[in-house]
Amino acid sequence: MSFGKGPRVLDENGIAMTATEESRDVDPTGIVSDVKTAEETTESAVEGIVIVLSITSDIAYRVNSYQDFLLTWVHLLFRS
């Protein structure tokens, strides 16, 4: 039985499957399984980290701007 091209991975039952570009393959029992390659998993993790960092950066910028705004008004109020 041919497994096709690409790296072989084992499913939860220990049956060898081929990781394809579409991340879908049929194991020898005929069951279609979703298989994520290491590259796809890494890409997903990096995308998640970038999203979290951009949200955190945006929140920090807004808090800092808000603090500057409040400090300016407090300074103006007590200066008078």
UniProtKB/TrEMBL annotation:
Residues 1-30 are annotated as: Disordered. This is Uncharacterized protein. It comes from Pieris brassicae.
